[in-house]
Amino acid sequence: MSFRARSALILLLGGVIGITLSLGSGVLAERDAQRSSLPWEDARLLAEVLERVKEEYIEPVDDSELIESAVRGMVTDLDPHSQFLNSEEYDEIRISTTGNYSGVGLEVNMADDKVMIISPIDDTPAARAGLKSGDQIVSIDDITVDQHNVEDTIGRLRGKPGTKVRITVARVNEPEPIDFNLVRSHVRVNSVRAEILESGFGYLRITHFSETTSRDLSKSITDLKSAIDGELQGIILDLRNNPGGVLEAAVDVSDAFLDGGLIVTANGRGHDATFQHEAHPGDLLDGIMVVVMVNGGSASASEIVAGALQDNIRATIVGSQTFGKGSVQTVMPLSKGRAIKLTTSRYYTPSGESIHGLGITPDIVLQDSAQEDLLAGGTEHRTEAGAALLQKDKQLRQALHVLMGGRILQSKVE
What we know:
Blueprint: E1 8-10, H1 40-56, H2 63-76, E2 83-85, H3 87-96, E3 100-103, E4 106-111, E5 114-120, H4 125-129, E6 136-140, E7 143-144, H5 150-154, E8 164-170, E9 178-183, E10 185-188, E11 192-198, E12 201-206, H6 213-227, E13 234-238, E14 245-246, H7 247-257, E15 262-267, E16 275-278, E17 289-294, H8 301-311, E18 316-319, E19 327-333, E20 339-348, E21 364-365, H9 384-392, H10 394-403
Parallel strand pairs: 12-13, 13-17, 17-18, 18-21
Antiparallel strand pairs: 1-14, 1-19, 2-20, 3-10, 4-5, 5-6, 6-7, 6-8, 8-9, 11-12, 15-16, 15-20, 19-20
């Protein structure tokens, strides 16, 4: 099945604000739908309710608002992942699936009703201006950010290249808010990060699965092979808190580590909703050891990759039980720039198991209370960022210990 013919998106479940995420996808293409007539009694019920609301509700309500609300409720009530998208929401999906947008280049998240900067994206207006991880966004263009207008206000960070935006942040140890006057520009979000943890051992972090993830991954592996001291001996693939993305990207990433074998199958009612994908010959890592890190925030596309590598005995999965989202959503365009995101398939790991509501069980369970000194010495061949990651991340130290052939004092899942 060609992904250019339809767009099967496994969309994110996490809480990162959509302005900074590139979920990635193939082309969002229209498809014909077979339509059946609505039974008269059901149509009459809808008409009766609409008429009562129009006549009796305490405030006047526009007809189009009522219809959109009815449609939104109908689709949302199907399952937690199906959704009606108005034109603005559909634009958001299409922008986010390209891996590119125009804005200032900030990854942000909500924490305790505050908008916090996770990190500025490299080589963007935000990074060049000096915005930092941990800064709290107080206002944008002098509009205060609060829990009631977060999405609207955060949307102001995006805009046409060359336009200006004023961001006010609160920073730890700074007595007064700090103002930043930025000029929006084109932003490309790289979904893959690469570091050297030890001589011969690399680290790949995939934050989300987008249209560019496969290319980003290939480039990162090439860069690691060039930069590492000696031959590349092993890789940690970090999928923790990666809430998913696009099915095509998950298949391509799995294929990059496999030399053959089944990646994923799916079943649904529609003809295009039933499919399977197999790996092509050619492992980008030439069979070297891979350890995949997962946790409860690893969902959908992350679980496809973890399941494919686990069932094909290509990687050791470490961490904790994953989220358990085993369904596929298809974005279907409607009239006037609107769309619905509809659950159309349930997917299965190569072993034929559905992980929906269950998740992927790791081969080795890691705990936050890891022993401190699993890896002594050897820091001379780490990148500065790699050394910093190991210093603050106990689970990463455990995973590297596994990758280097060691054992950890944690439970092995049988």
